[in-house]
Structures
1.
Amino acid sequence: MENDKIVILGAGESGVGAAMLAQKQGFDVFVSDFGAIATQYKEILEELRVPFEEKQHTAEKILNAAEVIKSPGIPDTAPIIKEIKKKGIPVVSEIEFAKRYTNAKTICITGSNGKTTTTMLTYHTLRKAGFNVGLGGNVGHSFAALVATADYDWYVLELSSFMLDDMHEFKADIAVLLNITPDHLDRYDYKLGNYAASKMRITQNQTADDVFIYCADDPETLKVLKTTNVSSKMYPFSIRKKIESGAYLESNNIHINIHLNDELTMSISELALQGKHNIYNSMASGIVAKVLDIRNTSIRESMGDFKNIEHRLEHVAKISGVDYINDSKATNVNSTWYALESVGTDVILIMGGVDKGNDYNMLKDMVHQKVKAIVCLGKDNKRIHEAFEDDVEIIVNTFSAHEAVQVAYHLAKKGDTVLLSPACASFDLFKNYEDRGNQFKSAVKEL
């Protein structure tokens, strides 16, 4: 009997999904997590009777694998990964593994910003049009868990650059790249070019029958396209220029033309998602729908009644004329820029947390124009003070969501917006960005 041992590193959503599928396919499975495993995932592994370890990686239990499935959060520099690679054991992502066991078609969406919103909107549009469709990857359930337990014809998958790094044979039937801005550069030797190349892996293995949708206004995408060989049909979208085949904006109307005599036109005021960045997200999603021949009336309806996800520009409350918005999912500078761009009033900005080598320069103009006070929420706020001391008169340090909301409440006047959009990761004070957003919402409801 040849070696049928699969080792899964990381026991979060992705790792446990991979374990479910690998076991279903008859592999001998072992799961190893260097951290503690969350109770909900431990229960699934126990129920499946899959052996696992936590808070350690035992080399002898790992280095005899035929293949390793690695969670996206584990960098290639981790000592155990180096040992695995030295032994020549193949390492793949859970997405790559899952695709081997389904004939379903995939719509894969990546980008530094907007990918969750675009993925959810695309899923919403397909489901409303009657497609048998699943939602997974970086949002919702892991792809492998869905393949193990459901039977969909289509999957809409949100893919991060980390997932793409360990995908080799995988092919997206429809690939969407929204934008490329500096993020996670610590994993790419601090080179934007490496990160961009990683994002472009979304087009790998595509053929002339497949589709690649991208933003024609994004300089980094255009730059990396020059050095990438893309075989699929390409549909760009732009808000700056007219596009023959793709999508563009003209006098506040979106035009999507894939098939010459069946153009979709829609006023941006009808879109459920407001703000310039969301015009891009809606266009990308609209092109996918048109490629799949979904009727214009159905696309219009879906784009008009879509409800955005929790923790992404989520309106929490209006209290004495002040709006409170939870954008805890903004874990990088660019997301915070988008959040500020979409708010039309003066802002009290709550930001801070674990800084991933952020360059705050791109926020300076926007902060200068719109932000009248910054409330820092994090253990170490020195870099925020240094970045914005010339642009904002008031910068206050706080160390809990409750304290941040109280301070913001006293600083805000009628007509202002209190915006939690941290530009940083959350794990200095919170479990994750959801926990941060939920604590913010509870604190607002106590006002």
2.
Amino acid sequence: MTPTLTPPAGSVAGTAADERCDRCNAAGKLRLTLAGGGELVFCGHHANRYAEDLVKIAVQYAADPEFTWRGADMMSNSN
């Protein structure tokens, strides 16, 4: 039997290199999982521009390792 690594339940995969911003089609830097189960991907510009609104609807997020999302602190404070 070959062992398989499985991510923890509820974890969010990071953005893939080919994912595009849902707002402007630029390269995706942030993936959000919504309470209803949907996902949104944003470029760095739109992720930071709408950070205050996005933290209100997101339950989880995953950011590109080289991207600092302004909403990260707000997400950790809202729990």
3.
Amino acid sequence: MNVAPNWFMYFIVFWAIVMVVAMSIGGFFMFRKFLKVLPMRDGKSKLDWQNYWVERSRSMWSDESKTLLDQLVSPVPTPFRDIAKHSIAAKIGQVAIEHGADSVTREHCIEGYIRATPKRDYRSLVSFLDRQGIDYSPYKHLLNK
């Protein structure tokens, strides 16, 4: 019987490692999604609250605020952009409703964008806002929390 060449064995081991890594990365993101679906103390999950704020504020969005939202989510990688847009829109809608506004303004968009961004991404958030020429000085206190 012939024995398989060494390069073939290394090839099999390489692809086994690639498959394990790919499945681990996918499992990590699926687990994060699972955690968002679990209900919190009030009985609603994080995704339920996002859907609530988006639906409640849907009529408040103008074309200008939608354009600004598209501009704000532009640095997010394309595969994740829709999810990020939904969660940021939910936070912006929540901010606008809690302020008692009739429509979503530029200020609500900037504040909601900062509130929706995780702390670990504040450095890239600030550099993006600076590059775009967006004044976030009234909300600098939110970046220190």
4.
Amino acid sequence: MSIQHTPAAQRENSPTRAAMASMAGGTLEYYDNYIYALAAALVFGHVFFPTGAGGVATLASMATFAVSYAARPVGAVLLGHVGDRFGRKRVLVTILVLMGTCTFLVGCLPAYSTIGVWAPVLLVTLRILQGISVGGETAAATVLTIEVAPPHRRAFFTSWSPNGIVGGFVLATLVFIPVSALPDERLYSWGWRIPFLLSALVTVAGFIIRAKLAESEAFVEAREENTLVKVPVLEVFRSHWGAVLRVVLCSLAFAIDTVIKVFALSFATTEYGIAESTMLWVLIVSHLGALVTQPLIASLADRVGRKPVFIAGNLGCAATLFAYFASIQARSTPLLFITGFCSVTLAYAAINATYPSFFAEMFHLRVRQTGMALGIQIGLIAAGFAPSVYLALTADDPKNWLPVAIISAVIAVAAALSAVTAKETAFTPLDQLGEPIAHTPAPDTAARPRTGTPS
């Protein structure tokens, strides 16, 4: 059954609007994620945990950040279920409101000195809800965008979702630098709250954009024709388990991002005495560059295919990380900026620009959001343990970066080899994407929509 759209509906479903909605949501999600990470490392041990606990307070504070990684697969399943059964837009708006509300409430929480143990309890609760939200964001934004994008520009339009992630990192870092410079008394009392409260502005802007979206024509047709599945996660494991496994293995490449943003930052400042401001500006400049290169690289992936670009990005990271660590050892600021550009703005940007379309195109429309989200979030759990593994590798010789670079290169090569096993989908029509469903699902009368154009 073909759905006829009015011109207004077509404007609501335009690829540009979908891409901007993806970028706005990604910026909010990862602005929130990064300011939480910075606050957990610098502030929360003092504010939300008993004073005098020393290193235990810092450890407990960092644990509140890590707990979100356990919640992400839950978010992938729950939000994927809603998106694959009831609509992508509904999930996108829900995610934005959930993350924005939780982040704002973190900025309003009383300290441990005011309400005692309820302070860390409320903090952990909000962090779990944030993790659920993050677990569904990238997949939901990518799936809606890919289903409205022109066939020959799917990678370009979906690349604006990771551009939002990069923008969130840059924005969080820029906001937190002056805040962290406040005197301790002001920082611990009210200063740390500013970045969290400012998230309300991004939330409102993102909501305005996402509220004007409509469902993709492809999803509406599937819903009208009664071909949606009742339990997407079961269908994913029944007929798309190979694609999920492939996405998990390809997602190991995200550990490279952890090496650059977390381990190398700490390594350079603590072991080689490089100023924290220098390293932060290396990261800011290289990520600002990625905002430009990622859409360009995605356009290349639309011309030559997803696989060669994704594979080249991984192999490029495997090589450039050695140069990046060598520049840290040399304490050379110019080399840091040059190798940071090569690692982040070029090599990792090729991964970041390509993975949304590459992963989403492995799945059929009926399970696309669930499958993509689940594969990414399972892979990210492994990436989340990367800093601990890297610290263990350098325990005997803290200045020896070679084992970290070697392991990172092995991870990148493994992700590239996983990509080799995938089908090239850049030139496959939308309705032919995804491994074939093994059986015809039973009619799902619950999924039948009311008459009228969805909004």
